[in-house]
Amino acid sequence: MLKISDGMWDWLNLEWFSYSTLMSFDWVYPLVLYALPVAPLLFLLKFLFTLNSRNKLNVAMFEGSIRFQWSSLFRHIPNVIFILFIMLILVALARPQRVNEQVEQTAEGIDIMLVLDVSSSMELQDFKPNRLHVAKEVAKDFIKGRVQDRIGLVIFAGDAYSLAPLTTDYKLLRESINSIEFGMIPNDGTAIGSALAVGINRMRDSKAKSKVIILISDGENTAGNLDPVMAARLAYGYNIKLYTIGIGKDGQVPYTDETGKTILVETNLDESSLREIANIGTGNFYRADTRDALQAVFQNINKLERTEITEKRFRDTRDYYQVYLKWAIFLLLIWMFLKNTFITNVLED
After folding, report:
1. Mean pLDDT of 13-40
2. Is the pTM of this model over 0.85?
3. Does residue 75 carry a pLDDT above 90?
4. What ranges do the domains of the chain cover?
5. Which of 3, 156, 217, 310 is the most exposed place for a label (fewest CB within 10 A)?
């Protein structure tokens, strides 16, 4: 493709007629290009219809045969140039141009802290292969759909730890989630209040328009030194919205022990506590007892907490019909010159 400069004589470059250059244009009136074959076709028809009705001049000829002279082809040059002139006019009328469009996106992101339960109960297999694995996969899908949002990660069992700070480095977040495994926190249990406190501590100085904590747990608060309700009130005080997700089924759930034996474990989710936390934090409580239900919960939160993206488009349009119009005028001048030289057959006019 020809790189355009602003020189006075750049239009004389034959690269204007290369296939790559012509294909690089956006054509305002592309239908005009379908008329290009018409110009040579009209001249061909004229030649065929006038072949037997040409003016003839009787002259005395010498004896013998007349051999073909290649110089006699010169008389067709003016017609060829005039055909090219018409075709270039059509190209100019089609209005070739190039459009350079730039899109500028701006967004005021949301701060989101994922707080994930990694206690031993997350090994239960009502989700395949287990609750924690499915929660990790759905969390990664949630991160993939965010734009310009800072997301952090807190994990908890009997204690709570910040695994990733608020960041827009989504690759780092996915790697952090992949690194989560059972036994990362030696002290087993479910310290929901402590986990919320760690998340709040990470977000309290945030200047984001919206701050959200998403808590995923399958049990009731059994550890830690902070009551979850008190933690929810702290979140409300820092203008942090709380979404709580209760994961897992009630009743007997299969679990494979260290010996490889599958046993049934009785489970019962404390919905009332998670619902109260969400109400205090002006968010919502969700129950997810299947993988699809958990995905639907995250999709719903994704819609509720959507970053507004402002998009500005800048279009720089540049026309190039002048180039082909200059070539057309140039060929017209050549045609007018040749019509007054020996090349033209006067009997044809």
Report:
1. 88
2. no
3. no
4. 10-101+318-348, 109-307
5. 3
- Taking only the tens place, the pLDDT of each residue in 268-290 is 888 899 999 999 999 999 999 89
3-state secondary structure of 120: helix
Residue 252 has pLDDT above 70, yes or no: yes
CB neighbour list of residue 342: distance below 8 Å, 6 or more residues apart: none
How many whole angstroms separate alpha carbon 286 and alpha carbon 294? 9
Tell me which long-range contacts 131-140 makes (C-beta under 8 A, separation of at least 24).
131/218, 131/247, 131/248, 132/180, 132/182, 134/291, 134/294, 135/216, 135/247, 135/294, 136/177, 136/178, 136/180, 138/291, 138/294, 138/295, 138/298, 139/114, 139/177, 139/216, 139/298, 140/174, 140/177, 140/178
Nearest CA among 238, 255, 242, 248 for reference residue 201: 238
Mean per-residue pLDDT for 216-243? 92
Question: What is the dotted CATH code of the domain comprising 109-307?
Answer: 3.40.50.410
